[in-house]
Each structure stands twice: as structure tokens, then as C-alpha cells.
């Protein structure tokens, strides 16, 4: 496959109205009701970037990847079939909800669900943040990134992302958590300049997703989001800090479904022609302190002088 971007994220939730409030009042997205109780959260020219579907449990339904044309889609579909994947091609009702021409679904070796689509729907309504966010950084870089948990098939999944999904290494992190035991997180990019669109981490998460990133244009946008989170009682998971691999300045919130949302700005746009894959060995230059009540997932350390 050749995937152009992480185009959307689909979440199943029993807390649709909480997600609406969280999206509009905290994240700064627009919202719109969809078919069969679905909720669209919009933050650029596309009809949505986050799709929340009614569900009895809180879970990742899919990381949605896009390609640019029907020919590229057919090539991706044939590649998935040739790899022996069990494929589900979306029916008319599913395509209607996702507002795409076609999509197919598969799971990776850890059981995490993915979709590949073409023919997404642009919105006729210009995006205007209801709380004044200046701009979300999307476009050809995609929606942001998603971090998925490993369920015991870490090495198999790494090979799958490379050999089947066609993603490339960005960087990787390995931290010692006990004598003789390391925790790993590997970062992957697709055919654009975002430093990573997908990461895999050796930590458990019942919802099937550890966090996703939303990137905004300015530090002021980030600071105002922190103030809105406090005003709306959205739990702060990690304080403000700066990551090493993608240079994002960000903080983390707990979503209505329980997993985390990273909210940041300043992500480096990569030129992959001269990039050297690195073991970054530490996750953050400064900050990102875990808040009371939240246990660290990956002891990322800090870079010291």
C-alpha cells in the first residue's frame, strides 16, 4: 500500500453528548449530527476529521487512511488481499456515514482496526472555530497522529506496518522500566511530511487507542485550550512540554472515552530524503509532567544539559 495520510479517526462511544461538548468547548471543533446518531467533529475544509459512533463501549473503531484516487485505492485493496488479510469492504450505509466513495477495513497483528478510503467529502461550510482557534494544522499532513497499544505482537506489528501498510520508520524509543525489561515505542510516517502519523507502544489500553494528536497553529491556541479544559473540567493528564522527535509543544487531556488527546503546536515538517532514523532514548526535552491520579505509561525521561 501507499497511504497518503491519516485522514480521520473513528471512535465508538456511549457518550456522544460528552464528546460534542469536549470537541466544541475544549478542542475548538465544529460539530454536526450524522446518520444513525453519529457525531462529526470538523476542524478544516473536510466534512469531519473525528467521527464518533454510538456504541455500548468506549473503543477505537478505526484509524482511517486515505489515498488520492480510485486507482490508488484499487492498488491498496489488491495489495491487502495479496497479503492474505481478511478484508471488509464498506457497504452503502457505512460509506454514507464515513462520507467516502469506497473504503475497506482490516486489522493489524495486534487486532487494531484500520480503514483505507478514497473520495472523501469536502464541506460547503467554511471552518470557523466556535471558541476562536486560529487554525488546525491538517491539509496534506493529515489529521495528526494516533498511538496504538501493543497486545503482545509488537515485532509482528512493526513488520506489518512496513511490509503491508507501506509505512516507514520515523524514530523509535526504548526505555528501561526494570532490570532487564525495556518498554518500546516505534514511530512511523506515510507519504507526507508529518514526523509520525502512527506510533505503536508497549503499554495496555482497554479502548484500543492510547492517544491521538490535534495540532494547532500557535502557542496561544494551546494556552487557551488549557484554560478551556480547566473551565470545562476536562481532566489534565500531562502538563505542557516539548517532545524530542517531532518538536511539538503540547499537553494531554483525558477524552470522554478515557483515552488521551494530545493538543499541541509547532510540529516539525520533515524532509525524508536526508532523515536518519534515531533511537531518541528520551521522549521530552522538558515538561509533560504526569498529573496527580494519572500513572506514567512510558517513562520517557527528559533531555538534560
- What is the helix tally? 5
* Average residue-wise pLDDT: 93
What name does CATH use for the topology of the largest domain?
Answer: 2,3-Dihydroxybiphenyl 1,2-Dioxygenase, domain 1
| CATH level 1 name of the largest domain | Alpha Beta
C-alpha termini separation: 42 Å
Give the topology string: H per helix, E per strand. Answer: EHEEEEHEHEEEHEEEEHEEEEE
The total beta strand count reads 18
Q: Choose one word for the global shape.
A: globular
Rg is 18 Å
Secondary-structure content class: alpha+beta
Strand order of the largest sheet: 17-10-11-12-9-13-16-15-14-18
**Largest sheet descriptor:** 10 strands, mixed
Number of domains: 2
Task: Name the beta content range.
Answer: 25-35%
Helix content: 10-25%
Brief sketch in words of this structure:
The chain has 305 residues and is of the alpha+beta class. It is 18% helix and 34% strand. This is VOC domain-containing protein.
List the helices and strands and how they pair.
Layout: E1 5-13, H1 16-27, E2 30-33, E3 39-42, E4 50-54, E5 59-66, H2 70-82, E6 88-89, H3 92-98, E7 102-107, E8 113-118, E9 146-149, H4 154-163, E10 168-178, E11 181-189, E12 198-201, E13 211-216, H5 219-231, E14 236-243, E15 249-254, E16 260-265, E17 278-279, E18 284-287
